[in-house]
Amino acid sequence: MGQQRVIHKQQRYLPAAKSWRMVRSMITRAKILILALVLAVVLGACSTTRIMYTFADDLIQNEAEFYLAAGEEEDRLLRQRAKKFMAWHRLQMLPRYAAFLRNEADNAEQGPVQKEAAMRAVDRVRVLLEETVQGFTPHAAAVLARYTAPDKVAYLKQRLAEKVTERQEELNAPLAKRSEDRFGRIVDNFERFTGDLSEFQLAIIRRHVKATRGDGEFRLDRRIQNSKRMVALMAANPSAAEIQKFLDDLFLRPDAGAKGGNFRENRVARLKTLIAEILFSLSPNQRKTLVQNLRDFAEDFSSLAS
User: Fold this and answer.
1) CA distance 137 to 246
2) What integer best gives the mean pLDDT of the chain?
3) What residues does each domain of the chain span?
4) 270 Cβ contact partners less than 8 Å away, ≥ 6 residues apart
5) CA–CA separation, 281 vs 172, rounded Å?
6) Structure confidence by residue, pLDDT tens digits, 145-160
7) 3-state SS assignment for residue 217
8) How many whole angstroms separate alpha carbon 147 and alpha carbon 10?
9) Hey, CA dihedral for 14, 16, 19, 24, is it positive or negative?
10) Residue 14: exposed, middle, or buried by beta-carbon count in 10 A (0-12, 13-18, 19+)?
11) Would residue 259 be called left, alpha or beta, if left means φ above 0 and alpha means ψ between -120 and 50 degrees?
12) Backbone angles phi, psi at 238, to 5 degrees
């Protein structure tokens, strides 16, 4: 146990190249829609957050180019749309992220974080993320509308299949190893904000990992189905408006009509419980560290927005 935790702590201080790959991995899974918050969670230093956000539009373009067979004209449109989205995000969403973080820091400073308050905070985060998605999908749809030719759809299909294969290979690893790796990632994400977790708090995370260890296979199955739906849509020569509706449904209402019923909502409910239990259990020193980190990230977001 002790050796495992040392390994996970070392991962927090890997060089910038590793952090860059971590961010791109998140983007690959569509998390670019909430880039600012992803950076706050994935990267441990506020100064790094500022640097990475500066290059965010390039990251969007680079990741999109993996999936799309872009010519010169399409590449220019992609760059323009990425810059427009990031400009909107910087002016409209970052100030709201900062306000949210300051409010949560004020609440945590008052005393122990009650479980109900923590769950309400998660709900407020979801509202912010949904609004970010709604700001992103018009730009994504405008770009994708240029990729409905048969050869471009075939290229997209091939790239989506490659990502599915990568995920299948990851899931071929022993379940015990995957569970331990996931445990380490969750611990790291909490400890970046709270400092070292106690054995009691680590046990909470282990219970969560054990209860959700079958999620990876289900998410892969849903990813396969969504890839097929995406390819079918693009092959039907849709308008930008039709693509935007598809993306909105995909990101905002993934359970609607999908195999597995309310998987996303159930997963969010389990995540809310995990966050609430950890925050409720924080010691005074951990809570002090949390408050400072929330304020630091809020300051960073405000600085980026100005």
Assistant:
1) 9
2) 79
3) 2-305
4) 208, 211, 212
5) 35
6) 988 999 999 998 998 8
7) helix
8) 42
9) negative
10) exposed
11) beta
12) -75, 160
Q: Which residues, in sequence order, are CB contacts of 57 under 8 Å at separation 6+?
A: 79, 82, 83, 85, 86
- Phi, psi values for residue 254, rounded to 5°: -65, -20
Chain-centre distance of CA 282, in angstroms?
A: 24
The structure tokens listed for 222 are: 């849903």
pLDDT tens figures, 85-101: 888 988 999 899 899 99
DSSP per-residue codes, 75-110 = HHHHHHHHHHHHHHIIIIIHHHHHHHHHHHHHHHHT
**Cα of 229 vs its chain's centroid, Å:** 22
Neighbours of 178 (CB within 10 A): 16
30: left (phi over 0), alpha (psi -120 to 50) or beta: left
DSSP codes of every residue in 131-180: HHHHHHHHHHHHHHTT--SHHHHHHHHHHHHHHHHHHHHHHTS-HHHHHH
Residue 200 DSSP label: H
The pTM assigned to this predicted structure is: 0.76
Q: What is the dihedral of CA 290, 278, 93, 79, to 10 degrees?
A: 100
Higher-confidence position of 231 and 31: 231
Answer whether 179's CB lies under 8 Å from 209's CB.
yes
The whole-number pLDDT of residue 254 equals: 74
**148 three-state secondary structure:** coil
Taking only Cα atoms into account, the Rg of the chain, rounded to an integer number of angstroms, comes to 20
Which amino acid does the sequence have at 74?
E
Judge contact between 136 and 250, C-beta under 8 A: no
Q: Which amino acid is at 217?
A: E
3 state SS of 31: helix
State the DSSP code for 198: P
